[in-house]
Amino acid sequence: MKETDPFIDNRTEESTRTAAQRDHRAGAEKIFQDIPAQEQLRQEYVQAHTGRKRGRFLYRIILTSITVAAAAILIATLFLPILRIYGTSMSPTLQEGDVIIAMKTRRVHQGELMAFYFNNKILVKRVIAEPGDKVDIDDAGNVIVNGRALDESYLISRSKGNTTDITYPYQVPIGRYFLMGDQRETSEDSRNSQIGCIGQDRMVGRILLRVWPLRRFGLVK
To answer: Which letter does DSSP use for residue 210 in this model?
Structure first.
């Protein structure tokens, strides 16, 4: 029978307990090391919160941009049509390439520039006479309305026109307007029976503002 030394056995048992305690402490320390520090948690919270704020901010920007664009299109369609000038019939007041803004209105007055529909196109001319007025044009191109010669300082030259086929004096039909281009020699307008006088149902709007080119930005008269 083998004898044992109690002192040695006790040391072995103590050594075993000490090793187990060390392993236990090491495991506990590892667990605590794996727990995020308070500052780390705060930073992660701020980053997550900032990400949500950034997402909401971008969403608001996109939503606002879409709303503004839709409103602009609606306003342009219903109230302020934007037009581009082609040709020279309104020279020198309007030049080819000018971008202008019109305003829809039921009130039309002599001397105003109006845009109107003709054969699936939009033309821009100046109101010369209103419903019921009598229009006459002499051989020198002077325009007389109701016996009074118009002061047309916006013209650079006068002409009776190359395409006129109506008989003067001419009475404007009720509910219609007599319009002419400022380039009198070549403009096709109410002096030609194919275009004739224009009713409210064909009016696009009164020309208000030139927005392009920028060097000529301003009200149009």
So the answer is: E
